[in-house]
């Protein structure tokens, strides 16, 4: 188990990571997300021992590192996977994976498991981005690290590749049974691949929980907005139900919210029906075509903006009238009115 307590990192007089606490089970994947500059890469570097820490402790089985007693990177047995793959261009796939490896059988195991068998003798320049990242992962896993750090491993790949490869990486990490921390800018990736998601804000963990909880019960408006489209509409919370201008829903209060509140709505918590001019309860502000669906921004008659996702078959132009209704039956997060 990886355990991090009160980990802080300063650059000069600026605190970049502030008292980070987390514990990861042996095969757990934690997705780390947050706005640019919030400290994600710094956390990975601190865990790998590449930069000094200011306070706190990192413990993993055989070793324990603190500001007073640092452990050098080569003694930590941490595997790292980067967005730029970091392969040796003059070596073949097999030689890259074998590099500094004692047990060649493990190289073969991961080469086969990651579908690279036919590419053993290829040089990196002849591989696609996805294949290169598989080689980098095979090399990392073949060294039997006690824990793995992935810094945006898919950000240099195109969207079609990402979808499959994120699952292949997840499966390989699970097969290896080592804890992993995976930094991503992609909220969909964070929610779909992670066992847990950590949302960082200015060097502090704002929420650390399962993807479902982070998404549907965010601990703050910041987390709600960071993990997807979020609309907040005024309502009144009483006896577990929140009443709004577009319908009722069961409510889960955040920070003891009660009485006059704001209800968090995700785009699929609401239905949209186009109506004749003069009817309905709102007007389309803009529409974004997404392929299988359309995302509508609707200005309600009280001025609140709500985003709604509807089938691509739903057609309504900006300026036209619509009827919105809350359609969800699961509890929605409710925040104190700002
Ligand atoms: N070597 C350094 N010296 C001084 N400040 C640094 C150094 N490296 C990073 N920083 C600062 O520390 C903060 C956190 O940087 P970090 O790279 O960890 O953020 P990040 O969350 O990974 O950002 P991004 O999403 O853009 O990759 C930023 O304000 C950055 O400017």
UniProtKB/TrEMBL annotation:
<keyword id="KW-1003">Cell membrane</keyword>
<dbReference type="GO" id="GO:0005524">
    <property type="term" value="F:ATP binding"/>
</dbReference>
<dbReference type="InterPro" id="IPR013611">
    <property type="entry name" value="Transp-assoc_OB_typ2"/>
</dbReference>
<feature type="domain" description="ABC transporter">
    <location>
        <begin position="2"/>
        <end position="227"/>
    </location>
</feature>
<keyword id="KW-0547">Nucleotide-binding</keyword>
<dbReference type="InterPro" id="IPR017871">
    <property type="entry name" value="ABC_transporter-like_CS"/>
</dbReference>
<keyword id="KW-0472">Membrane</keyword>
<dbReference type="InterPro" id="IPR027417">
    <property type="entry name" value="P-loop_NTPase"/>
</dbReference>
<keyword id="KW-0410">Iron transport</keyword>
<dbReference type="InterPro" id="IPR008995">
    <property type="entry name" value="Mo/tungstate-bd_C_term_dom"/>
</dbReference>
<keyword id="KW-0406">Ion transport</keyword>
<dbReference type="Pfam" id="PF08402">
    <property type="entry name" value="TOBE_2"/>
</dbReference>
<dbReference type="InterPro" id="IPR015853">
    <property type="entry name" value="ABC_transpr_FbpC"/>
</dbReference>
<keyword id="KW-0067">ATP-binding</keyword>
<keyword id="KW-0408">Iron</keyword>
<dbReference type="InterPro" id="IPR050093">
    <property type="entry name" value="ABC_SmlMolc_Importer"/>
</dbReference>
<dbReference type="InterPro" id="IPR003593">
    <property type="entry name" value="AAA+_ATPase"/>
</dbReference>
<dbReference type="InterPro" id="IPR003439">
    <property type="entry name" value="ABC_transporter-like_ATP-bd"/>
</dbReference>
<dbReference type="Pfam" id="PF00005">
    <property type="entry name" value="ABC_tran"/>
</dbReference>
<keyword id="KW-0813">Transport</keyword>
<protein>
    <submittedName>
        <fullName>ABC transporter ATP-binding protein</fullName>
    </submittedName>
</protein>
